[in-house]
Amino acid sequence: MIKKNIYISGASGFIGSHVVNYLLENTNINPVLYKKKGRKFKIELNQSPILLERSFTKCCIEEVKLFGIETFVHLKAAGVSQEITPKKLIYENIYKSFLDLEHAREAGIKKFIITGTFWEYGNAQGNTNQQLEKAFLDPKNFYSATKIAFYTIIKQWAKENNLGVIYIRLPHVFGLGEHHNRLWPSLKRSAYTKTDFHLKNSEKRIQIANVQSIAKKISEIALDMKCIDEFIVHNMGPKEMTKLEDFAKYWWSYWGAQGNLILGDEGSFEDIEMKITVEVENWQKLQF
């Protein structure tokens, strides 16, 4: 009997690396994934997942079935941390992503987890779950526009093919392996190099998520897809908002920074992507 398994796209990315690590360390699942030669995981893994020798869409259907893949977790996305052209965003976030999912469906996979972003809600993204359920999708950049387009396509695709799909809208996520130009890594870099850090809009209230908690939640959902036979949207948050100043001060103190944390409108660092949320309580207790 073939053991049921999980395939993860975007597994070597920031969140993907943590999902792979969580599954390896906390479950009996050895996830299947494809990683380009030379590409490294964002964090160190103590165990090895099952690596495909070629990309998922180049694997024959019989090969996919051989691995016993029951759930497809789609984390791959372009343009999250680095600006790329609209043409590239459409190609990666819509066309290539759909090819992966359709190939999985043709191979008999009927359960899918697909991640989007709170940026799809535009200015409404800082609201509560109840408010977001009534909010219109209103992208504020081309990245979120491609995610909305893909969401619309996948919703109809799932309906016409009787698939179980959970579409998870993710918040801004911080932690080990995060892109170096984001707030938390930038703050940490200044703390470790004993240099001053300028933070603009320090009074802004933010919602923010620890990557380990996000990886745990995604993994738990992936392990419990058996009864899912419809299209479901899951907004991962919000719980509560915290001032950007409080977040920065906590980590500045945690790392024992010797430079100055300069707050106020005259600062030079402004992370617009912080205006997103997640169900994480007591973020002050998170350890990195």
Name the CATH class of the largest domain: Alpha Beta
Element order, helices and strands? EHEEHEHEHHEEHEEEHEEHE
Please indicate the percent range of residues in DSSP E strands (runs of 2 or more): 15-25%
DSSP helical segment count: 8
Number of domain modules: 2
Mean pLDDT level: 85
Radius of gyration: 19 Å
Report, as a whole number of angstroms, the end-to-end distance.
40 Å
Overall body shape: globular
CATH topology call of the largest domain: Rossmann fold
User: Which class do the helix and strand fractions yield?
Assistant: alpha/beta
Largest sheet: 5 strands, parallel
Q: How helical, in percent, are the residues?
A: 25-40%
The tally of strands reads 13
Q: Architecture of the largest domain in CATH?
A: 3-Layer(aba) Sandwich
